[in-house]
Amino acid sequence: MTLVLFILYSGTSYSQSVFPNLTFRTLNTKDGLSDNTVNYITQGDDGQMWLGTANGLNSYDGNKFTNYYRDKGDGIELNQNGISTMVKDSFNNLWISDRVGLTKISLNNFKTTFYRQFQTINKLAHFRKGILFASDAGIFTIEDTAITRIKIPFETYWINSDKIDQFNCAISDRENTLYLGSAIRVHKISAQRKEIKYYQTPNRNSILDIYFDKNNCGWVCTWGGGLLQLDQKADSLRQVLKPEHSSAITGTAIEWKIGNREYLVARVSTDKENGIILLDRISLNYKFYDLKTNVNSVFIDRNGNLWLGVKGQGALIVSHLQGIIESIPIVTTKNNPKYPTANVYTIHETKEHFWLNKRYYQGIFKYDKNWNLIKEFGSFNVKDIYQINQIEEGYDFNLVGNTMYCTNDLGMFLIDNNTHERKQIFTPERANVKLRSIVPVNDSTWFIRSFSKGIYVFNPKTNAFITKYELPKPSSNFGINYLIKTSQNFIIASTNQGLYYYDDQLDKFSLVDHLVLNNLYIFGMAEDQNNLLWLSTSKGILSYNMKKNQIISEFDQYAEMGTSYRVAVDSSNNVWFSNEKATGHGIRKRNEC
Description:
By secondary structure, this protein is mainly β. The protein contains 2 helices and 57 strands.
């Protein structure tokens, strides 16, 4: 589980900030990547990511890596394990350059073709129905199996007694016009390839890469001259990066939409800093992100996520949802060999604070409304009949006056909101009762769910457990998964064997007599504005009228998604639920998903 807390923001609040705070997810050798230096990234037609590293080629399906090496009989042949650049053409062929030559791999059937006559390739670019590249032997295109050397009237010139007769990069714009980058010039080649238009860099800096955005505006990366914009209307190159980060732009620029804004992403390397910039294409303002290591490649996948191939760290990924989701790291307080990381289990908001608990004995945390940590509550030494020596977990919270009540495995924590002093209140058994949900009924009566022991009643005025209701256990794996009080004053518990409700006349919890419900594992519950109870179950979701003991809607088509664990209703009466095979869905009043 990842140690992050996701907070959703509206588009309005995001628009107030021009540049987001990027949160990076890392994929490296611990995840199965063949090497931690990733030189190039691209994506196949089937959505799989392909990462070329300093030692091997990797495919990534979103869950696991498959590694390919030169001397390993795995269906893909490689010239070398060290991969320099890659590009995918319009026929789903992966083109790879290395120190030995050029390789074409069909991602449809893994058929491999070698072009070992090209041993020094600076950059591969997609071109019409094939690829385009500059090498020591000239400018070439390969379409299908046809190799064409582009003959152009190139003017040789000298810089500091060095003869310049080669190109660093070759690329086409959105209209298939050729552009070449050399030591100090951008060369625009006419359609007949008989005329050249020259654009010289302002400070005679070498051209490393050229990118044309969706508006066919050119962006020129240079060595030592910053990022330049090729303004074809003004017929000039102009510098758009401020001097403090213009000592070197070492490669690729690419467009990226995050939230409701569009940026240009470029790799930056200086004597002191290495990372990327986000450049607002309208205002030409930018923000630099120091990653402390060389960024070798930049790629945007089909979902709009940003991928960075870096030196020594693997691949860094930023979700395109970064503009509406902020990830807040929650520290790991202990090194638990059984649970090396711990997930956030519960978040509870009060007027002034956020309270949260981390599972697997990692503690309770109190934050202010800006997510600055105020207090971390660690071990609490106690001893029960099972000789448990400390408690560090909480599950549900409820603030009364100046006291925060928090359920735990042995009973209840009472935490003073000012002094942070903590007191443990035990259940009568003083055993591992696994208290979870708190459901207040009135000022002196709370129903509290125990996962395995029943339903407890607690009086917050006297800070005492009053009684306990046992629930009949049809089998040994019986568990109480959720507890809710509806607007019609039903106290309902969901279990592995159906629903139970509190019968105030009999003063006990009784099984809801319904054939379908009694055969289901029922987990989360939520009530909508129509007083319908929504249940997440082992066979999808359904809505239920408790008063009539009637199932209103069974969403059979969602049963194939597997078990649904949690359900919630928002202020617009949309129902949201999670599945083991899907991320989540919303159902509106008209019962459409």
